[in-house]
Every structure is written in structure tokens, then in C-alpha cells.
Amino acid sequence: MQASVFSKRWIWLAAMVAVVCLAWSLLSGYLDLLAWRRSPQDEAWRQWFAWSLILRGLGLAAVLGALGGVIMLRRRLDRQIDTMVEACHSMALGEPSPLSDAPQGLQNLGRLALAIQVMHEALLDYLNLYRRFFDTAPDMFLSLAPAGQRILDANTSFCRALGLLKDEVLGQPAERFVQLDKGWDRAMSEGGELITGQIKGPGGTIKVEASISLEGSPGGQQWVLGAILRDVTLRDALYRELLQKSTALEKALEEIKSVEELKDQFLTTLSHELKTPLVSLKGFLQLLRQGKASGEQGQNYLEICWRNLGKLETQINNLLDLARLSHSKEQYSMEPVDLSGLVRTEAENLQAAAAERKVRLDLSKLPRQEMRVMGNHGKLVQLVDNLLVNAIKYNKESGEVSLELRREGPRVVLRVADSGVGIDRERMAVIFNRFYQANLSGTGRLEGLGIGLSLVQEIVKLHNGNIRVESEPGMGTTFTVTLEATA
Fold first, then answer.
1. What is the CATH number of the domain that holds 410?
2. Which of 127, 139, 155, 355 is spaced 20 to 30 Å from 177 by Cα?
3. 472 Cβ partners below 8 Å, 6+ apart?
């Protein structure tokens, strides 16, 4: 641009000189013509006039030639400058091309052309490096126009995510393919922060994090340099999975801690439950050994010892059965069992224990006819006994235990309902856990080894059945067992 202005000034100067010379030549020629007319016979004047015309013509021709040379020089300079400007524009657009007509006439222009050529080579190297990084990057890159957010360039990762060719993407608005949660206008106005969004690809929705690069234009408006889009679908899935596993691990740790506490509590309870009948046995046996009890009194002491031995045997057998049921269920043989007769017999066996606690057993809903299930007789006896003992133990004074047995299609349903203390919602989730001991309402006492209901659950699993509990504090508890019926 400066060279163009420089050449114009020289042209105007040459033109002014030419006009002045022409005016001076015409004026002096006119004056000489007037002088010659006064003395037309003077030979010297004629010769002077002729030479004057020749010299003026030569001078005028020289001035016009110089003016033409300046004009030609200006045109050449303009052409070379236009060539350099086009080369600079091409490099700015990322399409560098060699200078086909590099200025060589003037020293300054030659140096400028050399500098531009060096810049052209450097830009070519940087452009090749940029293209390799741009096209092979795992993240998605976009170059956007300042207005309309139209895509000027997109790398392979972006096109692959969309399942489109590059020609199908270029020139389109970015929001057609990428939906940002904040919207593109707000993302451009804020800039500098990660913005979440999504891309609809052929394989489904891809979650992305977008980073928008902004630059101020000479007019003060924001210029979108580009956008980096990172696929975070897998990362979010891994984060959710990690969170779930972390939560599960925390829950497992809590359960382990709870089991450790239950184990310590079980060992304490076990020592108490075993020590109590042993102390009773030792005391009465010592009296018998010393001969301090005889006749009917001695017989009563023996009965007490026998009951305590039975209690010890029952507790030990329950522990062994729980361990066996947890690890080797296949060792139990299955056969048709009359569940109606079994329930009635076990209820009658516990009448004395119920009367001792002033609890009434209601057997009116037990059918007289047989109801057979496929099962192990001994384990079913344990199941019914544990449910009845719990219903009696945790009942209230003058309470009631209701037994019901009915056929429902291919299944037999046994319900054991009591009018006792009930179970709150929080404890209903853990009553089948091993070594869990229910707190008798209002007493603060813990009874038993805490394996009764866990043993019941294992027995139900052994028979491919189902057990559920319904309860409300102060209103009683109902256990419902469903087993497979047989002919």
C-alpha cells in the first residue's frame, strides 16, 4: 500500500513537470513567433526559431517518455504488491502458495518478498504439523465462523462421531450437530469454561464437554477460534459404576462391621445360654451325688437335669443345622409330608409353654384333611417349632397365636399370626440375619441365640419356598410361608 502511494506521488509530480514544460515551450514558441514576424527576412531568427522548435520537441518527448516510464513502473509495482497481498491472504486462510512473481527490481521489495517467502515456508511447516494433530486427535475439534457459528473445518473424530463425511459437515451450523446445555450464544458470550452437551450419533447419544476459544476482533466483537469437544460418555458411565461400587463397598463394610458386632454378641450370648443350663445341671447333679436328694425329690432333680440337657442339645443342633443348610443342602432327602398333621402336632406339643405365658393357641383354621408338601419332615418340624416359639415368646400376656393352613393352587400357605409386641420397619429388614436378637419391648432383654428366624429362612430356601413378614409395633406380627404342594 505504501509503495502504491509512493508511485502515485511520482506520477503526479512527473505530470506537473510535463505540463509546466509544455506550457513553457508553447509560451516561448509563441513569443519567438511574434519576434520572427517583426523581421521575417532575418536569417538568424529563422535558424534560431527552427532549432528552438527542435529542442522544445525533444524536451517534450523526454518529459513524456519519463512520464510513461513512471506510469509503467507504477503498474509493475502495483502488480507485484497485489501478488504479495494475495500470497499473504492465502497464507492467512491456511492455503499458502509460492510467490509466482516475486519483486526483484527494487532492493526493498526484493527483501520484503524474501521475508514473505521465508514466512510462507515456516507457515507450511506449522500448517502440516497442525493438520496432522487436528486430524488424528482423539478429541473432536471444530473451527467456526464468527457469525452463525458455521463450521469452517472439522477433524476426523467429529465426523466419525456423527457418521457423516466432512463435506456434509462443513458450512453447517454447529448447533445442528452439537446441542450445548447452555446454548451456543451463551457459551460464546461466557467462554473459558467447560460446557456440557450432547451429540446425536448413529450409535446413540454421546455426552460431551465443550471448551470454546474466543478472541476479540479489531471491531471489538468476539471471534470464535474453535471448539474442543471431549466424549465423556464412557467417563460418566465409569464414574457411576465406581460410585455404585463404592456405595456397595461401604455397605459391605458396614455389614461386615455389623456381623463382627453380632458375632461378638453371639459369642457372649452363646456362653450365657450354654452356661445357664450347665450351672443348673452341675448344681442338681452335685446334690444327687452328695445324696442330699432322694425319692421323689431326687426324681424331680433328674427331670430338671434332663430338660436342661434337652435345651443344650436343641441349641447345639440348631447351630449345626444352620451351618449344614448354608453349605450342603443336597444332603437332605425329600418326601411327601402331611403339613396339616405336622402343624397340629407341634402346636399341641407347645400348649404347655403357651399356657405358662398365658397365650392362647387358635387352631380353628387348621384343616382336618391332609395337605401334603414335598419336603424333609425333620426340617419342617424345626420350621414350625421356631415360628410358634417366637410367636409365644414375643406375645403379650393374655395374647393369642393364630395358625392357618390353606391350599392356593399348586402351593400350600401357612400363616402364623400373633398379637404380640410387633416389629418396627427398621428391624424387619434384619430379623432374618444370623445372630440377630430381638429386644423384648419394654424389658431391654435379649433372648435366645438369634438363629431361630435365620434357620427358618434357610429351611424355606431348602424347600424352594418363600417367607414374608408383616408387622406393626404394638399390633402383632404375621409370618407367611409358601411351599410347593404335592399330591
1. 3.30.565.10
2. 127
3. 422
